[in-house]
Design a protein that fits this description.
heterodimer, A: mainly alpha, 2 domains, two-stranded antiparallel sheet, 3 helices, 2 strands, B: alpha+beta, two-stranded antiparallel ribbon, 2 helices, 19% strand
Chain lengths: 123, 140
């Protein structure tokens, strides 16, 4: 969810800069995030290496840095050297929203499970 | 993949936007007598060519992209206007001004069709989004 929220910010920045000369569209790699996430889960599940810090944060930043995708073949550089493609950005935002909502629903379900356990009855 | 249809619709939206821009450029240059290189030649209308593209990761499904924007090679239209400083002095078209050979009706129809196609792609996009959201409802 945090990743989806940050990616949403990045995409919003791209759309805001749709008319800024020389601006290159930015993005965060979902593949890299998923790779990092599964690595982190494996590391967590391996007993000796439970590498969570006291405040619940992982001991290293999860997820990639914001990457410039101007070299991406999908991005055509316009005459003002701006590579933001409105349709593509909006589509990525729609996808990101669905991914975020999936993560949110799963989290909500986990809370509901805890709630059920606390109440000791199925509501 | 859950989002393949979204990617395909996005490619359609992009292609139709380019087509709309081409039509807009052709209409805007309806009476342009100097081309973009500064030569005294009338503007040549542009036409987009679409091309089906294989969607990465899902063989058999095709998106679309603009293969090329080609300039028309049609002869200019000669408008008789002997008082104009641009009028030709000699030859068979003496007293005429060469003007772009832009078919306004055709361009307007093309623009309207581009808008309708854009709307259609947007409609499909919304439906695909709905499907993805409905899938999410399995969890709730």
């Amino acid at each position: 969810m945090t990743f989806a929220q940050r990616r949403h910010d990045v995409l919003a920045g791209n759309i805001a800069n749709v008319d800024t000369p020389g601006y290159h569209a930015r993005d965060m790699s979902i593949e890299q995030f998923q790779g990092d996430l599964s690595e982190a889960i494996e590391a967590r599940d391996a007993p000796p290496a439970l590498r969570m810090l006291s405040d619940g944060e992982l001991d290293r930043p999860l997820g990639p840095k914001i990457a410039d995708v101007a070299d991406n073949s999908k991005a055509i550089l316009r005459h003002d050297e701006n590579s933001v493609n409105m349709e593509q950005q909006v589509a990525e935002m729609a996808k990101n929203r669905i991914l975020h909502n999936t993560a949110l629903t799963i989290l909500m379900k986990q809370f509901r499970m805890l709630e059920t356990a606390i109440r000791e009855r199925i509501t | 993949m859950l989002f393949t249809a979204l990617d395909i619709s996005t490619s359609g939206l992009q292609a139709q936007r380019t087509r709309m821009q081409t039509a807009a450029s052709n209409v805007a240059n309806l009476s342009t007598s100097i081309n973009e290189n500064g030569e005294r030649k009338p503007f040549q209308p542009r036409y987009v060519t679409f091309e089906a593209t294989e969607q990465p990761g899902t063989p058999g499904l095709a998106g679309v992209r603009v293969a090329s924007v080609t300039q028309s090679t049609a002869e200019p239209v000669y408008r008789y206007d002997p008082d104009s400083p641009e009028a030709l002095q000699q030859g068979p078209y003496a007293g005429c001004v060469p003007m772009p050979n832009v078919n306004l009706l055709g361009q307007m129809t093309d623009a309207m069709e581009a808008v309708r196609s854009y709307e259609a792609n947007l409609g499909v996009f919304e439906m695909s989004k709905d499907i993805a959201e409905q899938t999410l409802r399995i969890l709730t």
